[in-house]
Amino acid sequence: MTELLSVAQMRAAEAEAMRSGAATGLQLMERAGRGAVAAMLEEWPDLVAGRWRAVVLCGPGNNGGDGYVVARRLADRGWAVEVLALGDPARLGGDAAKMRALWTGPVAGLDEAGAGPRPGLLVDALFGTGLTRPLPWEAITAMRAVRDRAAGQPGERCRVLAIDCPSGLNCDTGRVDLPPSGDDAPEDAEARSHSAIGILSADLTVTFHAPKRGHYLEAGPGLCQRLRVVDIGLEPSEAPSPVEPPASGRVRLVGARSCAADLSGDLWPGQLLRPGAGDHKYRRGHVLVVSGGVGRGGAARLAARTALRIGAGLVTIGCPPAALQENAARLDAVMLRPLRDAAALEALLSDPRISGLVLGPGAGVGARTREMVGVALAARRGTVLDADALTSFAEAPEELFAQLHPGCVLTPHDGEFARLFPDLARRDRQTSRVDAALAAAARAGAVVLLKGVDTVIASPEGRAAVHVAAYGRSAPWLGTAGAGDVLSGMIAGLLAPGASAPQVAAEAAAWLHVEAARRFGPGLIAEDLPEILPAVFRDLGL
Ligand SMILES: NC(=O)C1=CN([C@@H]2O[C@H](COP(=O)(O)OP(=O)(O)OC[C@H]3O[C@@H](n4cnc5c(N)ncnc54)[C@H](O)[C@@H]3O)[C@@H](O)[C@H]2O)[C@@H](O)CC1
Ligand SMILES: Nc1ncnc2c1ncn2[C@@H]1O[C@H](COP(=O)(O)OP(=O)(O)O)[C@@H](O)[C@H]1O
Ligand SMILES: [K+]
């Protein structure tokens, strides 16, 4: 699978290539600019023939250096190229200065961005991975001025190519750090952010060597729109194996696109799903889902049915005696046991064959759930804690952390995360969702799956993975009641046979969850997710 690099890791890869003599900085910059042009023409073949007009906005660092290479290469193809620089190009240093010197055309200031005919292409080479301060308003104003050249004119709008990243995107966090104000900035902060993000969005982003974390987190996918990675001849890092937890300090991208040809029934995630030829139901694990009371059992039933569909050999729902009748009317293959209180759960867990537990969906917030969680954790089975099992500890999260063990997976959404880890939810400028989930996992002593379009899975040992429902894997239909309950059933069903590390089970579940939603498509409700899993498995060749 693909690795998502931090900015520091990318810099280290570049420095290593230069140190070992594999390439000079100037060679890397030339390959970056050349690769960006080639990728852009592959993406938009209608631009291959003809002499188009491009506006290239060049910044004060190496991203600007890449921009001068792009400008030269486009001019060599016969394009009309306008170069506009932020700051004084005479103050460029190092390789960027050398690339500036190789550009023989004129260089104007950003204040001229609004003048001139409509370009077919706007190249954003203002800032890349080196931006550590808020983006200057003059960058936003210039981007808007070039886009506005097309306003009211017939023909296609101007396409935007971002070099390495749309300027302003923090490549570690995926957030955009906007300046507090500007002469022509809207007064209201939210309107300012909304309008700036619209102006900064690219149609195509070309990055180098490997994708960065910010391309996949938070605002990243929306800003980049389409992402292409160009090889610039740096040493590839060894691809992390999807069936082993990733190494500490490395972040892998979970998903079909990232493991392309490997994605088959024989490999990931097939190995986690295919029963052995001689397996009987007890070898495939027994999941117990602890349900809420009368009229509150739907969430547990969704989790239970999903655990069965994903491959657990047996699944039981334990519910308060008063809810037995209602559950019995709704269940067939899923078994049912009365569960009056924590003592009853303890008795049920004396059966060592119960190997996976789900607590939280529809459980109710309060002392009863806290006691149940305590008993469940003492039994040290593969355990998924979701929803009310998390919220029940909002007043005293340390009480929960003290009881957790390495076989647990917590599946908070952002709201639940903030209840358990309020300090980590208030992230500073440089702290990403990955950093926050890693810190949470370390504090909790359990795997934390932080849900969202960009789902982060982090382990206490410092291992992290990201699954993103974007870039051709979007699944907006998953924003539906009960989708989270289904995810907890998926994880428990994968954990129950005891063969997968919690981190690996959680990653595979995150992928299958989105895959199922995409396979079903519009109109999806949570009940559809377990029912479409067999089709997903057939597609995998299982
Ligand atoms: N790291 C690598 O391996 C490679 C990097 N390359 C390019 O180099 C880029 C990184 O270059 P840099 O580290 O020079 O950084 P950038 O060019 O992204 O931007 C940093 C520059 O902007 C200035 N700056 C930062 N915030 C500012 C603000 N608010 N207002 C005005 N100026 C500000 C900094 O002083 C610095 O000069 C990458 O994004 C990529 O485009 C490529 O040439 C290929 C190889
Ligand atoms: N727009 C979206 N794209 C992809 N996944 C989404 C989207 N909206 C929600 N999800 C996923 O759906 C699930 C919702 O879980 P949760 O918020 O716990 O809902 P519920 O409590 O109703 O089950 C999470 O796994 C989340 O990642
Ligand atoms: K850029």
Automatic annotation (TrEMBL):
Residues binding AMP are: K451, G452, V453, D454, T455, G484
User: What InterPro entries does the record tag this protein with?
Assistant: Carbohydrate_kinase_pred_CS, CARKD, Nnr, Ribokinase-like, YjeF_N_dom, YjeF_N_dom_sf
Task: List residues of the YjeF N-terminal domain.
Answer: 10-240
Q: Does the keyword tRNA-binding apply?
A: no
Co-factor note (free text): Binds 1 potassium ion per subunit.
Q: Which UniProt keywords apply?
A: ATP-binding, Isomerase, Lyase, Metal-binding, Multifunctional enzyme, NAD, NADP, Nucleotide-binding, Potassium
Task: Give any GO molecular function from the UniProt entry.
Answer: ADP-dependent NAD(P)H-hydrate dehydratase activity
- Where is (6S)-NADPHX annotated to bind? 62-66, 128-134, 164, 299, 362, 413, 485
Catalyses which reaction? Answer: (6R)-NADHX = (6S)-NADHX; (6R)-NADPHX = (6S)-NADPHX; (6S)-NADHX + ADP = AMP + phosphate + NADH + H(+); (6S)-NADPHX + ADP = AMP + phosphate + NADPH + H(+)
Q: How does it assemble?
A: Homotetramer.
Q: Per its database record, what is this protein's job? A: Bifunctional enzyme that catalyzes the epimerization of the S- and R-forms of NAD(P)HX and the dehydration of the S-form of NAD(P)HX at the expense of ADP, which is converted to AMP. This allows the repair of both epimers of NAD(P)HX, a damaged form of NAD(P)H that is a result of enzymatic or heat-dependent hydration.
Q: Which PANTHER family match?
A: ATP-DEPENDENT (S)-NAD(P)H-HYDRATE DEHYDRATASE, ATP-DEPENDENT (S)-NAD(P)H-HYDRATE DEHYDRATASE FAMILY MEMBER
Protein name per the record: Bifunctional NAD(P)H-hydrate repair enzyme
